[in-house]
Amino acid sequence: MMINWIHPPKNSDVAKLIDCYWFLERPEETDSNPFPKLNPEPAGHLIIAIPEQTYHYDIESDRLKGKGSHWLYPYSKTLQMDHSHGFAIIGVKFHVGALYLLNQEPQQSVADTIVSADLNLLFGTEGINEIDLIELAKQDPQRLCTKLDEILLPWLSKVEEDKHYQLTTKALPLLAKTPIAQLGELLHCSQRTLERSFVRVTGFTLKQCQSMNRLEALITYL
Could you tell me the pLDDT band of residue 1, with boundaries at 50, 70 and 90? Predict the structure, then answer.
């Protein structure tokens, strides 16, 4: 996916759950691939788009489509996007497992799913205008990041971590260099307890998440 820009949150409390904000725009007339593919991704994204903006995602034989802002939940399968028409979208990328803490439907952890999102209903506020946010993303990315921090902070500050999330967040940074079979001992719990908590929070096994992270690291390197 071609990303016009990508920035981390400015607020440290928001950054505990949000990895980054990104913006992607494709003009109606362009030579870029109209059907890009996304590799499996263990992190969830909130996609902000104007209400009239259509979206299409193909997951194997299923086509998930709709209009406007939506959740792109973590996905274990390759997604093909339909970019045959122009668009502009803002992405809010959450840390792996962060969606587990959020009070929303469907309940986490959910994978390979697209769900429409009403931003004002989601954040318990009024006056969020997707058109204004998209325009700000084009004109002043840093101001948009500050604005998103302000919108997200009251919502994210309500979450409470449980033992499953805490154990999962300890395991995640170890996946890159530690054999999975050694993680339970290293984190002072049984391997079964670790696996159950990890699947509960992320929707994936330790092995699945490790494989997705390694694939992403390889692609980035290449």
Answer: very low
